[in-house]
Write a structure and sequence with these properties.
By secondary structure, the chain is of the alpha/beta class. The chain contains seven helices and ten strands. Strand 5, helix 2 and strand 6 form a beta-alpha-beta unit. It is globular, with a radius of gyration of 17 Å. It starts with a strand and ends in a 15-residue tail after the last helix. It holds the Pfam family Abhydrolase_11.
Length: 242
């Protein structure tokens, strides 16, 4: 039976944690999954959390403007992060939780995102924060990285420019992130592919379009060595940390 634990983080926002799993699961396996609702100024965000009792880092991921947190590339990155001993929070932003397809004002979207990240950091303490997302979510992660205190950004399917409008490049958002950004794009993405000079690393996957769902394992493989820098407990064969 689900267990609901109210948790007020501060006067500005509140959080509820819903564990739809046995409460003793972390003691049995060292890994658990939960769902959170975080109230922001733009409405509630919904968070799906996969974690261990002592994570090496926190990875916060989000979706595109018309997507959800179960996108194939997000799930592939989640599995890699969990294998490295990280905690992963997949955030359904307030506009999507309310059923809208358009994120609205970037200023308001970013403010809500920072409230979500603040609540999550309050839960996990002083572990390295890496944030990221796909498409519009990648833009949010870049725009807010400095304010969130992120150590790095994972930008999946970064939408460089609207299709057919290369003159409206968004490369500046990558360069202005203030932290190292890893970009993973497909070579057939109609939104284009960032230049290698625009990020710390740009990985281009052959045959992939904007959805990055042809070979999700390749997305995970591209992200794995980059995420590994934030864990001192890299897994070894047999499943135990080194």
């Amino acid at each position: 039976m689900p267990v609901r634990v109210p948790w007020v983080t501060n006067a500005r926002h509140s959080l509820s944690l819903i564990l739809a799993i046995p409460v003793d699961l972390p003691r049995r396996t060292g890994r658990y999954r939960g769902r959170m609702r975080i109230d922001t100024a733009q409405g509630p965000a919904e968070v799906t959390l996969d974690a261990t009792g002592d994570p090496a880092f926190l990875l916060v991921l989000t979706h595109g403007s018309n997507g959800g947190v179960d996108a194939a590339d997000l799930l592939a990155v989640r599995e890699v992060a969990l294998g490295l001993g990280g905690a992963v929070a997949r955030v359904l932003q307030p506009f999507r939780a309310a059923g809208r397809r358009a994120p609205g004002s970037p200023v308001r979207q970013d403010a809500a995102w920072l409230q979500v990240v603040e609540a999550l950091r309050g839960r996990f303490g002083d572990v390295p924060l890496v944030q990221g997302g796909r498409s519009n979510g990648a833009r949010v992660a870049c725009r807010t990285a400095r304010a969130a205190g992120a150590a790095g950004v994972v930008a999946l399917a970064f939408p460089l420019a609207p299709p057919g409008r290369p003159d409206r490049s968004r490369a500046r958002a990558l360069r202005a992130a203030g932290v190292e950004v890893l970009v993973v794009n497909g070579d057939r993405d109609p939104f284009g592919v960032p230049d290698p000079a625009d990020a710390a690393e740009v990985v281009v996957l052959p045959g992939e379009r904007h959805d990055l769902n042809r070979n999700p394992a390749a997305v995970g493989a591209a992200v794995e060595p980059w995420l590994r820098r934030w864990t001192a407990r890299a897994p070894v064969p047999g499943g135990r940390a080194s």
